[in-house]
Amino acid sequence: MFCNTVSVALLLFSVSSNAQLTWKEAYAKAESAISQLSVADKVNLLTGQGGASRCIGNTSPVASINFPGFCLEDSPLGVRLASNVSAFPPAINAAATFNRTLIRQRGEAMGAEFRGKGVHVALGPMMNLMRAPAAGRNWEGFGADPYLSGEGAFETIIGMQSQGVQATAKHYINNEQEHFRTTSTSNVDDRTQHEVYAIPFIRSVQAEVAAIMCSYNQINGTYACEKDETLNGILKGELGHQGYVMSDWGATHSTSPAANAGLDMAMPGPSNFGSALITAVQNGSVSQSRLDNMAIRTLAAWYKLGQDSGYPPVNFDSRNNSAPDDLGVDVQGNHKVVIREIGKASTVLLKNSKNILPFKNLQSIGIIGNGAGPAARGPNGFPNRQGNDGVLAMGWGSGTANYPYLITPVEAITARAAQDGTTVTSSLSDSDLNAAAAAASGKDVALVFITADSGEGNSPVEGNAGDRNDLFAWHNGDALVQRVAQSNKNTIVVVNTVGPIVVEAWIDHPNVTALVWSGLPGQEAGNSVTDVLFGAYNPSGRLPYTIGKSITDYPAQVIYTSPTPILTIPYSEGLFIDYRHFDAAGIAPRFEFGFGLSYTSFQYSGLSIRGSPRGGQAPSGPGSALDPWLHDPVVTVRFNIRNTGRVAGHEIPQLYVSLPASTNSPPRVLKGFDSIFVAPGRTQGVTIQLSRLDFAMWDVIQQRWQVPSGRIGISIGASSRDIRLTGSV
């Protein structure tokens, strides 16, 4: 029997007992508080203490208003550098669920853990886009599509902040590769900036995110943390961001230019702010009113989330978990439930010849590959996960957390197989191809686990400086699959990876009967994939990016060398990233964006489209990006999904919009999705509402969103290329 639902009753999170304030209420309290403060006190609110305190980032207390100072801590997948915390699946797997409920529950659980450790500011979510498929931190974000990334950011922020923790949307903006991240300029045109890279931040501001982190790179020749056009103009102006802007660690390059351009807090401090900011206020290069606004924004976030009353004190030490001031408070609760649920809901079934999956009546299983087993050093043996040994369940760098435990596929599969009396033989070496063949030979099925890793650029791993050097499986993965496929007619490949890999060397081999894309499932990795393999869960994951046949099929690549001190990264592909480029250029992918198979089948019918995106006046100026004219529902799309198979399962219907050809837009762009559970033989109605923003393009002349004239296509499909229903408005 397939079980595809998770009981919300089991996912109990300790929500803050303090009611949260509106921004207006929080601002009023903050304005009252800062009226009591000296210039030095205000600057203390805005300046990191450096690396001398217990959290990765810290601000100083201000006793006169009972402000304890902020504890700021990584990461987007859990509390970094702490004990007794959970290691959640990263955002790339959360995105692969295409399930808003699960994404929000993940945010709630992470928020509860940050709060339980006394962290005021969680440094996530991360929503930089998968512009270049080999970019090192792609796995920390929600994939290659702006709309999907925006929905992932929105649900994560709502979930985290429901626990009273400040979320931080990062990295603002155009920070899409690790090579030269501090010495490069991302050159982006105005339309692309608005329609692609700003979209996740619009949704973050709609979620009332407390903080936004500006990035290391330059944007069109000016550092992101001192660029007036993007900070004051777009973020605080058009988007109406009410919270504060902090710098990435070491990304503050000036005092007055940064403060006047919209930077509110310098991390980790104190250089460029601190005494330098006091001097700038005294000499008038930063006005008193600007300093007040910086302090008000920062304090307002504290008040808004109710952190001024009853908030837990910091009870860990990120520098040393064995230090006396690290109390080892266990904040995991029952979060393993949602971690396992996301792990299996994000598993993407890409190939299933002869319906070899789920397993049925097996006598023997071969398990091959280092990626199925434990790391020799243990799950936390590499600092910040800077090594690829054993099952891969997260990338490396500051976007990580310590594993409380890590379930390996070999232990989970072996335990489950024992229930059926199935024997398991394993070879956990990637290099011993003869042992791999022996483990596979004569077995009913042979499972081959391969990996590809990446992470932050300041910590190279196996010659990869954050960004991957290529899109091939690591550790001789292709040769391992080919050797096993020679020895077993039912070879099943399981991939744990940070992003797309090229699978052309073996995907069409007749003995490779299934491909399971497990991604990065977090601490329950082995259990999640076992649930799918043995049929306890009907796979419903969908690719949040395109898997191409060659790295050259993608429109943008990591730039690995620079002839100049500041590398120029031209975003010349414009709107056409990932599947948008594949569609426009007529390139056949191996597996398209949004693709994923199920153990059942679904039929779409009964498309109905009501309403129109036209009419009214397009807004402009401050706050225009959040104007109701843009976001109120104006078109309602309805259709039916019938489960025509024999087992229950989730279908992921996707809605794509096609603007008129005169707009020079991609052939279709994602503007809606849902996760719909349907029992066998039953039909479920689906309703997706669209706003004008879903039909709009950015007018670079009038500097406002406009709905173009002409017919606009609406496509409903099971992926970006498997279109089942079409209509127009």
TrEMBL record:
Residues annotated as signal peptide: 1-19
Keyword annotations: Carbohydrate metabolism, Cellulose degradation, Glycoprotein, Glycosidase, Hydrolase, Polysaccharide degradation, Signal
Protein name listed in UniProt: beta-glucosidase
GO molecular function: beta-glucosidase activity
Ranges of residues in domain Fibronectin type III-like: 651-720
EC number in record: 3.2.1.21
UniProt lineage: Eukaryota, Fungi, Dikarya, Basidiomycota, Agaricomycotina
InterPro entries for the chain: Cellulose_deg_GH3, Fn3-like, GH, Glyco_hydro_3_C, Glyco_hydro_3_C_sf, Glyco_hydro_3_N, Glyco_hydro_3_N_sf, Ig-like_fold
Biological process, per Gene Ontology: cellulose catabolic process
Family to which this protein belongs: Belongs to the glycosyl hydrolase 3 family.
Pathway assigned to this chain's UniProt record: Glycan metabolism; cellulose degradation
Taxonomic superkingdom: Eukaryota
Substrates-to-products reaction catalysed: Hydrolysis of terminal, non-reducing beta-D-glucosyl residues with release of beta-D-glucose
Residue stretches spanning the membrane: none
